[in-house]
Amino acid sequence: MKEKKEKTRLLDETGRRLLQEMKPLRGWIFLSAFLCLLLIGCAIAIPELLGSLVDRLYEWSRTKTFDLSQSLLPGLLLLFLVYVLRAAFTYGNAFMLQNIISRYFCAGLRIKLSEKLCRLPVSFMDKTPAGDVIDRMMDDVSDMAGSIHSIVEILLKGFLQMVVIACILVATDWRMAIPVILLSPLSVFLSARIASSGEKYWDKHFELGGDLTSLAEEAYTNFATTKAFRREEELQKKYDDLSREQQKSGIIAYFLSSIVQPAIALVNAMAYIAVAVLGGWLIIHRGVPIGTVVTVILFARQFSAPLESIAFGLGYIQHIKASARRVFSLLDLPEEQDPAGYLEKEVQGSIRMSHVDFSYDPEKPLIRDLCMDVKPGRKVAIVGPTGAGKTTIVNLLMRFYDIQSGQILIDGQDVSEISRAENRRLFGMVLQDTWLFKGTVAENVAYGSPGASREDIERACACAYCDSFIRRLPQGYDTMISEDSTAVSAGQKQLLTIARALLANRPLLILDEATSNVDTRTELLIQKAMDHLMGGRTCFVIAHRLSTIVDADLILVLRDGQIAEQGTHQSLLEQKGFYYELFQSQYAI
Amino acid sequence: MRELLSYLKPYRGKIALATILMAVSAVCDLLLPTLMSQVLDKGVYGAAEADTFGYIVKTAGVMLGVSLISLASVAGGYWVVYHVVSGYTWSLRSALFKKVHAMTLEEVGRIGTSNLVTRSSHDVTTLNEIVSMLCGSILIIPLMFLGGFILCLQKDVFLALVILGAVPLVIGVVLLMSKKIEHLWDVADEYCDKQNDLVRERLRGIRVIRAFDQEQKAHETITKATRTMADNLIRANVSMEIIDPMAAFVLNVAALLIVYLGGVRMERGNGLTAGDIFAIIQYISIILGAIISVSYDLVRLPHVRVAARRLCQVTESTGLEDSRLADGAVFSGSIDLDHVSYTYPGSSLPALVDVNLHIRAGEWVSVIGGTGSGKTTLAELLLAFRRPTEGKLAFDGVDSADLSARDIRSNISCATQKSMLYAGTVAFNLRMGKPDATDEELWAALELAQIADFFREQPEGLSFLLNPAATNISGGQKQRLAIARALLKEAPIYLFDDSFSALDFLTEARVRKALNEKLAGRTRLVITQRVVSAMHSDRIFVLSDGALVGCGTHQELLESCSIYREIYLSQTGDKHCCQAGSSQIPESAFSEVR
Fold first, then answer.
1. What pLDDT score was predicted for residue A60?
2. Among B169, B300, B364, B400, which residue is least crowded by beta carbons within 10 Å?
3. A332 min Cα distance to partner chain B (Å)
4. Domain annotation covers residue B292
5. What is the CATH number of the domain that holds B177?
6. How does pLDDT run across A524-579, given as a tens digit for each residue?
């Protein structure tokens, strides 16, 4: 039943698209198919040749009239040649398939995916865990490569081999061919049956295995807490019980999988016995030459050999298609539309937001009718408790997200008319979440300023107070650093991102203040470096400590995604509203 | 390594049984061609014409019986094998888990949590696969080889020698190849990891990349890495593909040799029959099938060494945990550190230097300091996760070296910054503090930690299920839950290690007030980076670079301790108060909190 359903669904939308994806590789696949044909030729020649050799042996033992070892030699040599050819074809085909698969198919798809990432909106990255994208790019693409293997190995080689051998069997002796051909579907049925009955045990085994891993992960992560509360025994029991449960399903799952092959072997043995009986009878009563029986026996082995991989392959195709669906769904995601406009003149740095509405989730309106007017060179502070939506403003200014209505104007020009890259080129950005890529310190600082000379880099670093610590690093400016590098502290990373922004020298600036995990002195340096950076630029500062923004020209107080209050420090304090409450709480209450 | 094998000891009998069953099946598989050759030899050419066919049918019956016995014994063999394997896996896992909890924090830190998880999941699974291979499929090869050799020996000693030469040659070559392949795979894996990291880095840095208009460059880097990875994958895969044709080729040539040599020997007339030769050719093809079916497993064999070595790292770790027996000591709550220093193993600079710190029972003290000042080390010393490398840490005047870690931990209730919670219900997590607590007690603790309202709003209430790592609640909520858990535990000493860091100032003030009411009379030690968390306590200790640089009340420290003043200034930006000695803070706020 299940088999049938799978077969009818083999060429659905995903299947067709998968074939489409393989189209450029047609030539190679045909070549591989040709090699497969040669291999089948070998597979046919071998039992024939071996059969005739054995025939000679029997003939000699009956007649003893010729020089046996001499008469064997030509056949042996021929057979040797066929063996050499077969080994060469097998390896050649594998070599070619691996190359097509890895170099063209997988790498091609991965590059296509990477290209797609360039054109997907930031909202996609925000919603999708990195692991999910990586799984699609790595594991799913690898699985899809299995489709080429399946087509060549199963459809071309397996089926072809079976058909050809079935024909030869019938031609050699149709009577002996009957049991061989009839019994093989039985072994396919058997293996499929056993495999499907094991499925639910495998599912359970893996599911519990996952639980077990997360339990271990939790226990090891919480090591100190477990011990502080002395809960080791309790956890041990929980772990042991779960582990026992997992092993129970494991025994059955492993057992069922391992008897597939012996079960097929039994069916094959039955065919073998049937041929022996039938063959014996035919030799005695119909005078069939013994070599024919030997040939049939050897062919019977070749006939059933691809069966197992065909049964496995048909099941595997479902798995491949599931992977392909995930990859295609990523490739099909709507891309960001980007206007092609340019800025008309040199930017002075005035920014106006008028009646801006925005929300991440249509059901939860976030920013409604936001208006603000920032003159060139002014400092705007955005304050509010965590989760109030401070970073949303950054997202809108940088056009990581598009506003839903209203306008953002830079020097009076509507930003929706200019390209995103052009828009972003106006802003320098220092985020709390310091991102550094794997590369040297100098490369990281020069990120976004490709033409910068070493002197420029060092000057920017000196200005951002990083020069002295960089010089103390083992390879100075050429020290390799990365995201999780321990060579530089969190605070120093922050300073590097400030140097990066300084070097890029953009007319507008966005700063997200870092607070946690930075020691007091570095924090003072960061403050000073940021002051350098801000000089003369229009800037937006997301503030966590209010003390740093009391001199801002405009303070936006966010609360639950709404702008609750706006004004200067003094005017807001006088209002005695939410800002006042926030300001007081950092002292004592 | 021996230790890992010792877990197999209880299963010796079962392993022997499995071996026997597997051997029976291997012999049966080899008997089939033998019987077949008898059919051909005797049935067709030998015996009297009359009962020839009878003989064939009889032999066929025997063959069917042999096949059935083969299936039954192989199934039975696998059944036993998987019982052994699962029992082994279970006891290995259980022992590992136990061992980890007997480790010191030091060792856990050195090996690393994620490595430990890999060891108890991935490495155990690798070992498990190998054990099942050893007991199952791989066992069959030597048995088949041996069986085939013996059967062959009965027919012709000379031809048996061909098998004796060819099979070990093939196995040797496969093993040799597998070593080379393993290296290629390691390289390929390394490039896969690199590619992974690049994609992850790009996704993480999407905002910066786009802000600096570097998408194209990121794409090019990944394209290049993808091609390098492909090259390495091809190299590994292709070298793997050489095993099958090579094994097949060698054994097929051996079969040819047997046909020829057999023919030569038949001619000389030493009783060798054509059926015998045919049988021997089939033995080879059976052995070949067995080798090819496990060649992929054979290639994995070197992985075992890696997995086993890593597992041994855990099983052979020493761990100082509890040489002293717990005797249920109850402290009154005074803590004394006399000239305590602590140096991390392998580190040249001490993390704590000559710290003198005396806390009276029932006192409320804070320890303040920036990152890297030694605060966490201090907390770990108090909880006996580490022992001072110099000086003396005493509870109630008793040297902690004479106390068991379990006793010390019974007397300290703690909440930490990272607030470790367990997947499961809120009640389960809270009852870790007090296993027999009633629901009312749990609610009261939640109330004190200012989080009761959140769980009251949840339909599940105390049965609210936390995800692993409590990802379904916020950082602040996690910290408050951990505080509630610490409050439930009855102890003379309460330790809060940076456990308010994710709370906003308003909530923290409320929690602090509740704590001070509930825990009045108990020793309270608050370790923090935040001045607001510390400023109201009886005494404040200031740590900087592992040394104690100040001690006193908030006012005293503002006047006397420059580092404290610096911290205060940077966090509040309040330039007036430290000079005036007072601030704009309304007096009422003070009294309300204390």
1. 84
2. B169
3. 18
4. yes
5. 1.20.1560.10
6. 777 788 888 888 888 898 877 777 788 889 998 887 767 888 899 999 989 988 88
Out of B101, B214, B234, closest to residue A448 by CB = B214
> Tens of pLDDT along B420-448?
888 889 999 999 888 899 999 999 999 99
What φ, ψ does residue B89 adopt, rounded to 5°? -60, -45
Residue of chain A whose alpha carbon sits nearest to that of B513: A589
Where would I find the beta strands (DSSP E) of A222-376? 351-358, 367-374
What residues in B contact A523, CB-CB < 8 Å? Answer: 570
DSSP assignment string, A567-588: E-HHHHHHHTSHHHHHHHHTT-
Number of Cβ atoms within 10 Å of the Cβ of B453: 9
Which range marks the domain in which residue B64 is found? Answer: 2-315
Q: Which candidate from A61, A283, A584 shows the least CB-CB separation from B266?
A: A61
Q: What angle do CA B60, B64, B66 make, to 5 degrees?
A: 110
Domains in chain A with CATH codes: 2-331 (1.20.1560.10), 351-585 (3.40.50.300)
How large is the ipTM? Answer: 0.80
> Among A125-134, A316-325, A510-519, B382-391, which is the least confidently predicted range?
A510-519
The answer to whether position B214 is within a domain reads yes
Residue B283 domain flag? yes
- DSSP string covering B82-144: HHHHHHHHHHHHHHHHHHHHTS-HHHHHHH-HHHHHHIIIIIHHHHHHHHHHHHTHHHHHHHH
What DSSP letter does each residue of A351-373 carry, written as one string? EEEEEEEE-SBTTB--EEEEEEE
Distance from CA of A91 to the nearest CA of B (A): 6
Q: CB-CB: which of B132, B223, B238 is closest to A254? A: B132
H/E element, B415: strand B412-416
* Residues of chain A found within 8 Å of residue B422, distances taken between Cβ atoms: 218, 222
How far is it, in rounded angstroms, from Cα A65 to Cα A71? Answer: 11
Cα of A160 to nearest chain B Cα, Å: 20
What residues of B are in contact with residue A546 (Cβ under 8 Å)?
A: 573
For A236, B7, B70, B116, B334, the CA distances from B101, given in Å and listed in that order, are 9, 19, 46, 11, 28
Shortest Cα distance, chain A CAs vs residue B225, angstroms: 10
Q: Give CA–CA dist A96/A90, Å, rounded.
A: 10
Residue with tokens 């669904």: A9
**Residue B463 is assigned to a structural domain of this protein:** no
**Contacts of B439 by beta carbon, 8 Å cutoff, 6+ apart:** B427, B462
Measured CA distances, A584 to A47, A130, A388, A531, A579 (Å): 93, 40, 18, 25, 9
Query: Beta strand pairing status for A554-559 and A379-383?
Result: parallel
